[in-house]
């Protein structure tokens, strides 16, 4: 997973004003890094309308709808660190991890993220991290 989480996919100290803006920022990174087409970002927002991607422990994992999997060019992740938090359907989110999984890889990505983020200490470390490398190393330690 750490191979998919590169420094250029991480945005430190993001301050989106809304859940929609947070999803937009996470999706934009996926587009800019060549993991998905432009059409994937609206599909991430649609997916959020169906069911919240809030996972607990201040973490949300937005991803596209089932129909949007054709918009995924390669598996990749985006990571927004939001120390001030943003509201996701009434819940405070401090980490937004955008996922694009090619050929069913999103389930593996989700489980790896869940392993790291199920430990509140890891979430606190990720929220407090001051560099992209620090974030990547927290995920690497959990692998």
UniProtKB/TrEMBL annotation:
The phosphoenolpyruvate-dependent sugar phosphotransferase system (sugar PTS), a major carbohydrate active transport system, catalyzes the phosphorylation of incoming sugar substrates concomitantly with their translocation across the cell membrane. The enzyme II CmtAB PTS system is involved in D-mannitol transport. Keywords: Kinase, Phosphoprotein, Phosphotransferase system, Sugar transport, Transferase, Transport. This is Mannitol-specific phosphotransferase enzyme IIA component. GO terms for biological process: phosphoenolpyruvate-dependent sugar phosphotransferase system. GO terms for molecular function: kinase activity; protein-phosphocysteine-sugar phosphotransferase activity. InterPro entries: PTrfase/Anion_transptr, PTS_EIIA_type-2_dom, Sugar_PTS. SUPFAM superfamilies: Phoshotransferase/anion transport protein (SSF55804). It comes from Jeotgalibacillus proteolyticus. It comes from the Bacteria. PANTHER family: MANNITOL PERMEASE IIC COMPONENT, PTS SYSTEM MANNITOL-SPECIFIC EIICBA COMPONENT. The lineage of its organism: Bacteria, Bacillati, Bacillota, Bacilli, Bacillales.
């Amino acid at each position: 997973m750490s191979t998919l989480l590169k420094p250029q996919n991480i945005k430190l100290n993001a301050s989106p004003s809304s859940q929609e803006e947070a999803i937009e920022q996470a999706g934009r990174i996926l587009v800019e890094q060549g993991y998905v087409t432009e059409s994937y970002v609206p599909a991430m927002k649609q997916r959020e309308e169906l069911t919240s991607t809030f996972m607990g422990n201040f973490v949300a994992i937005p991803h596209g709808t089932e129909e949007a999997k054709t918009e995924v060019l390669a598996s990749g992740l985006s990571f927004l660190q939001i120390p001030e938090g943003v509201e996701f359907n009434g819940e405070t989110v401090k980490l937004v991890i955008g996922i694009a999984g090619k050929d069913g890889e999103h389930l593996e990505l989700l489980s790896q993220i869940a392993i790291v983020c199920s430990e509140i200490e890891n979430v606190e470390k990720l929220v407090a991290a001051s560099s992209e490398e620090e974030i990547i190393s927290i995920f690497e330690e959990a692998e």
